[in-house]
Recover the amino acids of this structure.
């Protein structure tokens, strides 16, 4: 992480991240053995400030208490115009940069692994599905155009399939956490 440019360290959560050797080894094993990887994340706005959080883990790991490789950071923004889409997209950018750093460092140049982005913001998922057509899809005045552009730039350097999958938010409002399906439990973890 420390080898990344400063602006990437800020997005990744240079001061708040958990990248254990075990979690990195586990993800490398997934990529080297064509196993799928799940990415969960969230973005929030509170008092005109944004923050984002992400978790990257093997798809076969269904323990919501094991967050895998995760991190978070403040989201840069114009305080008067920030909306939740912006930090949510920066969560995806951070996850993509983390995956790119692992693939590059361990010289993993090809894999049939699939990255599944499980987010509760449908618009951020639409952006990950359009990374290959960013230049024709992104409106010039989109409030998160810079985040979307970063997403497209790093996404194009990752030779893995990317799939968006919507997870309904706040399912724990009416159902006890322990009774929720795994993806919903992970979504609750991202909200914390």
């Amino acid at each position: 992480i420390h080898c990344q440019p400063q602006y990437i360290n800020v997005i990744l959560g240079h001061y708040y991240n958990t990248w254990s050797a075990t979690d990195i080894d586990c993800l490398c094993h997934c990529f080297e053995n064509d196993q799928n990887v799940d990415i969960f994340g969230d973005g929030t706005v509170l008092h005109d400030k944004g923050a984002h959080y992400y978790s990257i883990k093997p798809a076969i790991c269904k323990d919501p208490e094991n967050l895998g490789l995760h991190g978070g950071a403040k989201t840069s923004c114009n305080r008067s115009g920030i909306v939740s889409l912006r930090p949510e997209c920066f969560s995806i950018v951070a996850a993509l940069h983390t995956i790119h750093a692992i693939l590059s460092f361990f010289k993993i140049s090809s894999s049939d692994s699939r990255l599944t982005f499980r987010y509760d913001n449908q618009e951020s998922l639409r952006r990950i599905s359009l990374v290959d057509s960013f230049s024709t899809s992104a409106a010039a005045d989109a409030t998160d155009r810079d985040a979307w552009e970063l997403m497209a730039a790093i996404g194009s350097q990752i030779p893995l399939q990317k799939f968006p999958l919507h997870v309904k938010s706040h399912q724990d409002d009416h159902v006890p956490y322990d009774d929720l399906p795994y993806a919903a439990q992970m979504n609750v973890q991202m909200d914390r």
